[in-house]
Amino acid sequence: MSSVFLSGDPQSDAILADDPFALLMGMLLDQQVPMEVAFAGPAKLAERLGKLDVDEIAEMNPDDFLEQFSIKPAVHRFPKSMAARVQKLAEAIVDDYDGDTAAIWTTGDPTGPEVLKRLKKLPGFGEQKAKIFLALLGKQFGLSADGWQEAAGDYGADGSRRSIADVVDEGTLLEVRAFKKQQKAAAKAAKAAQQ
Asked: Among the four 28, 51, 85, 108, which has the fewest Cβ within 10 Å?
């Protein structure tokens, strides 16, 4: 697998590039924390658990898992809720895909819309998160499913700077961050105008 620049930390990025579950977990964690913090989370957890094993994570005692998740620096700023989400995600992958995360986007040679549908069924993946992850697979992980760009919507557009799917180096990280800041400001202004 090629190298990626999602967390900005070479060791964390290496795990993301090689381990589909780590990548999916990074996307799950990408809320209410900076993108690179979210995508560094799987490496922190792998270090604490010895490895990222989707079956083991699914079967771990939730209190024990939370304890590992919460060690400072915590994997996420909301360890309790996010640890539970990671375990639910692991359980879904074990139950629906026999523990093979990549099967979500490979089994049965699915189209882009089918991959999107499968992603949206996962715990913690709404429409937007599923589209961003689909765009990430297409732009940086060689997903060639028919119609993935259309299914990913604006996130699939060539040359866009909207999400983690577009981050390939420090420069693009800053561009995506600027775009997100601009979107938040526009949403805030629209809300203020309605009051």
From this structure: 108
